[in-house]
Amino acid sequence: MPTTLRVALVSFRSDIFSALHAGCVAGGNAPVLYITGRSSGPRKPSYPNIGTKVTDVLGSVPVDTDLLLPGSAEGMVQAIRGYDVDLAIVCGLSWRLPQSVLNAPKLGVLNVHTSLLPKYRGPAPVQWAIRNGDPDIGVTIHWMDERIDTGNIVAQRGGIALPEFVTFETLWARVTPVIQDLLVVALDRAAGGYAGEPQDEDDASRASPMEPEFSYIDWSRSATDVHNQVRTFYYGAGIPGPFGKIGRNWVRVLRTSRTPGTGVRVDCADGPIWVVETEPAQPFGSASGR
Known about the structure:
Layout: E1 6-11, H1 14-26, E2 30-36, H2 50-58, E3 66-68, H3 73-82, E4 87-90, H4 99-102, E5 108-113, H5 125-131, E6 136-143, E7 153-161, H6 168-191, H7 223-235, E8 243-246, E9 249-257, E10 264-268, E11 271-280
Parallel strand pairs: 1-2, 1-4, 2-3, 4-5
Antiparallel strand pairs: 5-6, 6-7, 8-9, 9-11, 10-11
Helix pairs in contact: 1-6, 5-7
């Protein structure tokens, strides 16, 4: 008979918790604890909107399961041990977990990452896939270590199409079933002692947060680069923008098109782009002087 694992789920949104929970249960495993970060790191001030975040997460927590908001790594270790957790699953946590937390579950900690690792290691894999014009993304489940997204791969699948303009919610609907299927495989392998496959460092790339300069459109770049920049912000870039100057006016560009149609034509380095949707905006800092 397959082993039933006692699992702690670590994330930051109700829909992600629900996907992780369903994947665990589908494989016959038992989520016994939910953990969400109340701050950007251990012993740091709570997020200003932590109440809203907790209200959202509570919508997915089963009535017989506890929700933990740790303030320190030590508190997380004590909770995981106290709940007799076999395995923890992380999907979206700003904390860089120390080895003490990674060692707290009996088997270790798995991370769910939305790229085909070792490609796009870091906090913004989908944003970089859109920015680079990738046609699709993947999901990787790997053992966590003290570095960022470098641990051995336990399960992986690609081929999740990236529409031209996509939001987190619409893309998550495509990602969810893949995560659930992979979790069944990954948890079964973890229970059997599978150490995973090492990542190929020669193929590694970083997916760091978007740089502040990315908030501004440079029309002297290629039309494809500008279009993908707008697409990235449509998904969510984590910074304000993208701001562009059309004529004498600054606007926030919401949608563009590479094919002729409605909107304002702007010439880029290699050809035109059509600005389809904008809203008035005043860039922050010294951008208005550009």
